[in-house]
Sequence to fold (205 residues):
Amino acid sequence: MKAKVLHLDRDATSDIELNDSIFGLEPRADLLQRVVVWQLAKRRAGTHKVLTRGEINRTKQKVYRQKGTGQARHGARSAPLFVGGAKAMGPVQHSHAFDLPKKVRALGLKHALSTKVKDGALIVIESAKADAIKTGDLAKRLDKIGAQNALIVDGEFDGNFALSARNLAGIGLLPTAGLNVYDILRREKLVLTTAAVKAIEERLS
Fold:
């Protein structure tokens, strides 16, 4: 399939051929959901922790004798029943990550890219460069191509462009090597440079 290549600094356009096996698939929501859940689970810290009965700093001596007091039968003060005692079956440190086959991850990325194409939310630009560090000027240029809430992907970002874009609300920059399903789906538009398109096709072909 063909897509229009826009230019940030002028009105001229050209065409680029997109690989149908990457950008022309019928999106599957179940596949995208699997990859997003895998990503979010992997990034969880898993550092939540409470003290167990073996770790609580309280005496393990029996509170009082078993019989003859008229009160309930109790053991150590570290029991969850007492104030200051341990937490029963509380959270412990562990990893939330799980395995997902590489082929499923790659297919999920293809379906995420195809989703943007199907929704008309894919914008291809010639390059992501700026002559000077001017945030307001770059905002106007991005507004002109309809990239208000967008993820911009390039192989290696120009320094002036990156500094101009870092304070723009709703604009995210991502190198091609870090392209992932979650970041693609959480933005309304996906902006790819021609270099990024070439790199993505080489990566996923």
In short: The helical segments are 20-23, 29-43, 102-118, 135-144, 159-165, 181-185, 194-204.
